[in-house]
Specification:
Layout: H1 18-27, H2 41-70, H3 73-94, H4 97-114, H5 117-122, H6 128-133, H7 137-147, H8 151-174, H9 176-179, H10 182-203, H11 208-224
Helix pairs in contact: 1-2, 2-4, 3-4, 3-7, 8-10, 8-11, 10-11
Keywords: Isopeptide bond, Ubl conjugation, Ubl conjugation pathway
Pathway: Protein modification; protein ubiquitination
Organism: Perkinsus olseni
Length: about 230
């Protein structure tokens, strides 16, 4: 199992080739090594950093591929968040944080989120639609946080949100006992809007963009339904 992440490469290359060392590193995944001394600037950028970025890309690509097939979306997001926090601590402890953190983050964002965000959003029963339907605020909040550096992923979340609003209003309108009782219909509509507003506020940090998109989705859905349009 993957418990601690990939080991750190040695502080400087030995006489063996880099490819040989990469093979050795990848065969010992799971135990974290520590450099015996801070790498010199030239060695750090020409060897250590390059090899470490390649190492974590390989290690976490495999782990993410396996994890997404065996766990719910919520569990996957928690794992991704845990790994990102772990790597941040490692960079802060052993590496040049001013230069390396952004590069490590870019690799992790792509491996954990960029390659899988459509699957995570669309996953039946535990994906974004299920999160909205069941108001899983904590999972949506984590999804929004992890997806925030992938603009196209946020666009897909917004699309699903609008689809969920449209579907909820359609269900409300299809209920003859409600739509034929104006007061009850308005009460249910207001409750529905309040629920989505609460989700947007709590999960998306009150994002003005998401809030405006929600208002537009409500207005569009109501105006497009002949039973509601005036």
């Amino acid at each position: 199992g993957y418990r601690t992440g990939p080991p750190l490469p040695a502080s400087s290359p030995s006489s063996s080739s880099i490819s040989d060392r990469n093979t050795s590193n990848r065969s010992s995944l799971g135990s974290v090594g520590e450099p015996t001394r801070p790498p010199s600037s030239n060695v750090y950028y020409s060897w250590f950093e390059v090899n470490y970025l390649a190492l974590i890309r390989d290690f976490y690509t495999r782990e993410a591929n396996e994890y997404i097939d065996r766990h719910t979306v919520g569990e996957y997001l928690e794992k991704a968040d845990s790994r990102m926090r772990q790597e941040k601590r490692r960079v802060e402890t052993y590496m040049d944080r001013t230069q390396t953190m952004s590069k490590v983050q870019e690799v992790l964002d792509y491996v954990w989120i960029g390659r899988h965000y459509k699957t995570l959003i669309q996953q039946e029963n535990s994906g974004c639609k299920a999160m909205f339907a069941q108001a899983r605020v904590s999972e949506l909040r984590l999804m929004y946080s992890l997806f925030s550096r992938i603009p196209e992923a946020l666009t897909d979340i917004a699309t699903v949100k609008q689809e969920c609003i449209s579907a909820a209003i359609a269900d409300l309108v299809a209920d003859e006992t409600t739509v034929n009782a104006p007061v009850r219909f308005v009460e249910k509509l207001l409750a529905l809007r309040e629920r989505f507003e609460r989700v947007v506020s709590q999960a998306f940090g009150g994002s003005l963009e998401f809030s405006n998109q929600m208002k537009v989705a409500f207005e569009k859905s109501l105006n497009n339904d002949p039973k509601c349009a005036h």
